[in-house]
């Protein structure tokens, strides 16, 4: 007796199941090509060839190259950023570690496309801004929004340097080492800790008349 299929799962061999498998192949191929070549240089024809299907079928399933890009680079929701300052720092670092993963093809596709494709740039900006806003709300002290912005820019810069520019040293360093090196910076910014200036310099927040 054939075991019952879970609700919502197409039966093997049905048209719906064949479509699902084709869509998965197309999305995987699109993700890889967008990561390798960026949005502008990736064509529907190239995606179809890589997925061993017809360009017309890709258009029928996804409607446009822009929609295909949106589906291929869709990311899982980020974990909410909240808690104590140290917890906020660790959540930001955990999110950062995910983006360093060499298998994060969707991240690389988005990064490679963001300089030439407005939607990619908008998606990156929205993701960074959303995380930045949550982090700033949980940070103590003044200028939390500025400090959160610096963290976001630093993390994005390191990810671009590692995944896109392949900078010497950074490109092949273990992800754990990169995160460990950035940890004191992120924690200091989250907590609002300032390093003392050179001897003889005044604290910019101090009262000169005190």
TrEMBL record:
DNA-binding region of this protein: 43-62
Keyword DNA-binding listed: yes
The protein's name in its UniProt record: AcrR family transcriptional regulator
Biased composition (Basic and acidic residues): 14-24
Coiled-coil portions: none
GO MF: DNA-binding transcription factor activity; transcription cis-regulatory region binding
Positions of region (Disordered): 1-24
Keywords assigned by UniProt, alphabetized: DNA-binding
InterPro entries xref list: Homeodomain-like_sf, HTH-type_TetR-like_transc_reg, HTH_TetR, Tet_transcr_reg_TetR-rel_C_sf, TetR_C_16
Ranges where the HTH tetR-type domain occurs: 20-80
């Amino acid at each position: 007796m054939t075991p019952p299929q879970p609700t919502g799962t197409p039966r093997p061999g049905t048209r719906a199941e064949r479509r699902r498998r084709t869509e998965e192949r197309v999305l995987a191929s699109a993700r890889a090509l967008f990561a390798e070549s960026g949005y502008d240089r990736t064509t529907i024809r190239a995606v179809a060839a890589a997925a061993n299907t017809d360009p017309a079928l890709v258009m029928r399933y996804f409607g446009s190259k822009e929609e295909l890009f949106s589906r291929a680079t869709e990311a899982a929701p980020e974990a909410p950023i909240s808690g104590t300052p140290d917890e906020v720092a660790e959540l930001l670092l955990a999110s950062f570690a995910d983006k360093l993963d060499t298998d994060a093809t969707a991240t690389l596709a988005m990064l490679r496309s963001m300089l030439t494709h407005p939607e990619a740039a908008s998606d990156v900006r929205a993701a960074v801004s959303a995380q930045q806003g949550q982090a700033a709300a949980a940070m103590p002290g003044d200028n939390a929004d500025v400090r959160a912005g610096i963290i976001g820019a630093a993390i994005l810069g390191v990810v671009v340097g590692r995944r896109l520019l392949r900078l010497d040293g950074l490109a092949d360093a273990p992800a754990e080492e990169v995160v460990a090196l950035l940890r004191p910076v992120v924690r200091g910014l989250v907590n609002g800790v300032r390093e003392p200036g050179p001897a003889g310099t005044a604290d910019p927040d101090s009262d000169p008349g005190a």
